[in-house]
Amino acid sequence: MLLLRHALAVLLLTAATQALAEEALAAEEALPRRVGDCAETTVRATGTRLESGGRPVAGSGSQITYGNGGGQVSYDTVPGIEASRPGDRVRLCLVSVPRNCPANDARGRVYRATNLRSQGQWTLADSAHSCGG
After folding, report:
1. Residue 87 and residue 45: Cα distance in Å, rounded?
2. Domain containing residue 4
3. How high is the pLDDT of residue 28?
4. Residues of the signal sequence (predicted)?
């Protein structure tokens, strides 16, 4: 009987864990595709723009990656990014898309981000260089 209770408890815990994981994945919205559209995602990681030998290079700028595969980068240190933590909810809105880009070069999309925990905001491109450059 004790073994049966243990097995049932493990089964319930596994189902609950899977449900939480599915809920987290469902909460990740794809990157906005049209100017003016927004999506919610989470912060995956933050750091400096550059690393050397696996270590952050101070003063090289900021970078942030999101749970939906997006990211932003700046040559400047961005206080809103510095204050963000992994797991924070973020609203990303597409502000602009570069024109006349090579067919397979999508760099240079600019997003306005709002950290929903800290209320910090920043507007940056998804790459240090725009398409074609």
Report:
1. 9
2. 1-28
3. 87
4. 1-21
